[in-house]
Write a structure and sequence with these properties.
The complex is a heterodimer of chains A (399) and B (373).
Chain A lengths: L2 E5 L3 H11 L5 E5 L21 E4 L2 E7 L2 E5 L4 E11 L3 E3 L12 E3 H9 L8 E7 L1 H12 L3 E7 L3 H10 L4 H14 L2 E2 L2 E6 L6 E5 L4 E5 L2 E6 L1 E3 L2 H5 L4 E2 L2 E2 L12 E3 L9 H15 L6 H20 L15 E3 L4 E2 H5 L4 H8 L11 H9 L13 E2 H4 L7
Parallel strand pairs in A: 1-2, 1-6, 2-3, 6-19, 8-15, 9-10, 9-15, 10-11
Antiparallel strand pairs in A: 4-5, 5-6, 7-16, 12-13, 13-14, 17-18, 20-21
Helix pairs in contact in A: 1-7, 2-3, 3-5, 4-8, 7-8
Chain B lengths: L7 E4 L3 H12 L4 E5 L7 H4 L3 E2 L6 H17 L14 E5 L2 H16 L5 E4 H7 L9 E5 L3 E2 L2 H11 L3 E4 L3 E5 L2 E4 L4 E3 L2 E4 L15 E12 L7 E4 L2 H6 L4 E9 L4 E10 L8 H14 L7 E12 L6 E4 L6 E5 L5 H17 L23
Parallel strand pairs in B: 1-2, 1-12, 2-8, 4-14, 12-19
Antiparallel strand pairs in B: 3-7, 4-6, 5-6, 9-10, 10-11, 13-16, 13-17, 14-15, 15-16, 18-19
Helix pairs in contact in B: 1-6, 1-9, 3-9
The chains are: A alpha/beta (399), B alpha/beta (373).
């Protein structure tokens, strides 16, 4: 019998697969990375529940035909039959263009952390960590533990909203303690942001402002993260209805497409706890079992945290005005802001400037343009990620 | 609207509308271009931008050739983003039968004064090393080219200095004015309908059917392909009436990307990617160029060609409304034929004799003319 397939082996996917397995049903967990853990637990928590079949290094691309998922590995195309699907594709970092953001040495905060985890040295390097959200604190602490000197942790949100966020955590004491510990160890500076990064071949310094005062920090690296963007592309290409930029699901995490479930960040950014709970609920539901009631209460708490997080990470309008006319917005196709400004919407920008038409297919600049112009991305078409022509031709087993 | 009545209103800012705006502006007429979306967002955006002389019929050949000459005249002024590429067309003959067809084509083209070169098995392999071995040969038409059509449309509108209004839907067209979705009207002496498949809503009984096509584009592989390479069987696919067909057709883009086509489907009106037909199309291309299988496709899309029963465009007076002109039904040759189409209409409007015969394209061949305006 075709099995339940879980796409994405981060917290939501791992939790969903374990829940399915707890009912003794077959479950296949696939992820494009070589191990489980997703972006957040990369290389640290990779344990998969017993009996879960895994297909790592396997990228889901779309539907091959009814009940068949089209995927590919580095060697071949794979067509995977499924009875039900759980989409747990996580989130990616949001980037915003500002002068100098394309200089070598400017990284996404999570991206730099991932690189350091795989051996990139930061010992003795001076790093500016900037943007918004709790990830900045975690990254700053991690980089410091690896010998980096943190020049500043610049959080764009105001102190007042951080305090409101803190109060919202009072229902989750463990989170409160974690936030307090991280805030104490990294001492973020609220209400300030990077306006420009300087350097000729590589980052040399960053200009920061708090809206009144502007100053320069010499640095070797800039790690910036403007919170997260849900990875909704696979759900969209499977035909699932999206609402407000996230995948719509019912209470049991079934999407608008019968038999396709979605859990974690694609349903709304909310962090690990929310992903774990939603994954568990989705896993039980996909297995045809009713999740126990306490999960729903836990999810409600996690969603309150998500709402508070959403409020605190809302980007201040100044951030949408940092890019200058010559600032590159689309890195794949080298399109500067001035050319995009000539266009009235996403579609004309794509057609007339090639913005968003490169290999990343607007994954990076799309969310930036949403912040800058309020443009919502167009419909998603297969393949959701670059794929070999042979795979799309339905030629399985060929490289 | 703004107190000024244009001489000409062009409905549709695709490549045909843009060329019409250009042709009428050249006559010294004031032109307003309206589009329900943006510049070149319909079939113009979906197509390959191949400027090719086809010879399926005398009329098709005449209009292709005339249009190609007009494109060539425009070329020196084109900005870089139009990405003109003199890539030629390389027609591939898989077997001896197709090689015979290539030879026939060569005789015909040469008699008409178009330079071309018959290739044997060895020389076609040298011309395109990524073609599979064992092909019979082919025909190289070096005068053909490719452009990036949306930017061509934008450029033509810009150099014509015409008034372009985007996001403006036209709901009714009458002799002397058009009505917009907001109820307002724009009066104009001449109205041109360059609305592709949407022309059906303004010209009742016009036998235009949408013919869906799929395309795929790869990452950048500079030097992988030198010409637009098309199987000779393409003509069968394009001119045939079968509900569904695919043909090997691949184009090198200025970026080093490879644009892969083609498919043709009748009776489908949803823009979704149809995985089985996309798969069939790609398999056909991989049969000809096996190395394609390993290249990375970054995007796929679909579009709709406005096709007519006789595979010729519809260019000429509206059957019912005086001073309303129609320019549609170009199927897969809209980019190629846009310049010629526009000049034919401009000639008709100013009362100049056209350079090529216009009667094969007149709407009256499909719809009885019954003027009651």
């Amino acid at each position: 019998m075709p099995e339940i397939v879980v796409i994405g082996a981060g917290p939501a996917g791992l939790s969903a697969a374990a829940a399915v397995r707890s009912h003794g049903q077959r479950v296949v967990l696939l992820d494009e990375n070589p191990a489980a853990g997703g972006q957040i637990w990369r290389g640290e928590r990779t344990a998969v529940a017993q009996g879960v079949e895994t297909m790592f290094g396997t990228r889901a691309l779309g539907i091959a035909s009814a009940g068949m998922l089209l995927c590919e590995t580095s060697e071949s195309a794979v067509v995977l039959p499924f009875r039900k699907l759980v989409v747990a594709t996580g989130a990616r970092e949001r980037f915003l263009p500002f002068p100098g953001w394309t200089l070598p040495g400017v990284f996404g905060a999570g991206g730099l952390q991932a690189m350091v985890k795989s051996g990139f040295p930061v010992d003795g390097k001076r790093v500016v960590v900037a943007g918004t959200g709790p990830l900045l604190l975690e990254v700053a602490e991690y980089l410091r533990s690896r010998g980096a000197r943190i020049a500043i942790v610049a959080e764009q949100a105001r102190w007042t909203s951080l305090i409101r966020f803190g109060l919202a955590l009072r229902h989750a004491p463990s989170k409160m303690a974690q936030a307090a510990r991280l805030a104490f160890s990294t001492l973020p500076r609220a209400g300030c942001w990077v306006t420009e990064v300087h350097g000729t071949e590589h980052v040399e310094a960053a200009t920061l402002t708090d809206g009144r005062r502007t100053w320069r920090e010499a640095c070797d690296y800039v790690a910036c993260g403007f919170h997260l963007v849900p990875n909704t592309e696979i759900a969209a290409v499977l035909g699932c209805h999206l609402e407000g930029g996230v995948v719509w699901t019912d209470d049991l995490h079934e999407t608008s497409i019968s038999g396709i479930y979605c859990a974690g960040e694609p349903c709304g950014i909310g962090g690990v706890d929310k992903s774990l709970i939603e994954g568990e609920i989705a896993g039980h539901a996909a297995a045809g079992r009713l999740p126990v009631a306490r999960l729903f209460a836990k999810r409600a708490r996690a969603r309150r945290f998500a709402a508070a997080l959403d409020a605190v990470t809302r980007l201040r309008p100044e951030l949408a005005r940092l890019a200058r006319e010559d600032t590159i917005v689309c890195r794949c196709e080298d399109v500067p802001l001035s050319r995009i400004r000539e266009c009235s919407d996403w579609r004309s920008a794509k057609l007339l400037t090639r913005c968003g038409m490169g290999p990343c297919q607007g994954r990076v600049c799309g969310s930036a343009l949403e912040s800058l112009f309020g443009w919502r991305p167009e419909s998603v078409r297969p393949p959701v990620q670059p794929a070999r022509a042979g795979t799309l031709a339905g030629l399985t087993g060929s490289a | 609207m703004n107190g000024r009545t244009p001489d000409v209103v062009v409905v549709g800012a695709g490549i045909v509308g843009a060329c019409c705006a250009w042709a009428f502006a050249r006559e010294g007429l004031s032109v307003t271009v309206l589009d329900r979306a943006g510049i070149g967002q319909g079939a113009t955006a979906a197509g390959m931008g191949h400027i090719v002389v086809m010879d399926d019929s005398e009329a098709q050949f005449a209009l292709c050739r005339y249009s190609q000459r007009l494109w060539a005249e425009l070329r020196p002024q084109m900005p870089a983003d139009v990405e003109w590429q003199a890539c030629g067309t390389l027609w591939v003959a898989a077997d001896e039968d197709e090689l015979e067809e290539a030879a026939r084509k060569k005789t015909f083209l040469e008699a008409a004064g178009i330079g071309c070169e018959l290739l044997d098995a060895k020389s076609i392999a040298a011309a395109e090393p990524n073609l599979r071995p064992g092909l019979a040969g082919g025909l190289l038409q070096p005068g053909d080219s490719a452009i990036y059509s949306p930017c061509a449309a934008r450029w033509l509108l810009a150099v014509s200095k015409v008034d372009v209004r985007l996001g403006v839907a036209v709901t009714r067209v009458r002799s002397g004015d058009v009505t917009l979705a907001d109820g307002s009207e724009i009066a104009a002496g001449v109205i041109v309908l360059a609305t592709g498949g949407a022309a059906r809503s303004f010209v009742p009984h016009l036998p235009i059917r949408p013919r869906k096509g799929h395309l795929a584009i790869t990452d950048r592989y500079p030097g992988w392909l030198n010409h637009q390479v098309v199987e000779l069987g393409y003509v069968k696919s394009a001119s045939g009436e079968s509900a569904e067909s695919v043909a090997f057709n691949i184009q090198p883009r200025a970026t080093g990307q490879l644009l892969i086509g083609s498919s043709r489907q009748y009776g489908v009106d949803t823009p979704d990617i149809d995985q089985p037909i996309l798969g069939r199309m790609l398999r056909r291309c991989i049969e000809y160029m096996p190395g394609l299988a390993g290249l990375s496709v970054i995007r796929t899309w679909t579009g709709f060609r406005a096709s007519t029963p006789d595979k010729l465009p519809v260019i000429g007076p509206h059957p019912e409304a005086r001073n309303v002109w129609v320019a549609t039904g170009h199927e897969g040759l809209g980019i190629t034929m846009a310049t010629g189409t526009a000049r034919l209409l401009a000639d008709s409007v100013v009362g100049r004799a056209p350079e090529i015969a216009m009667h094969p394209f007149l709407p009256s061949r499909f719809v009885e003319v019954s003027r009651h305006d």
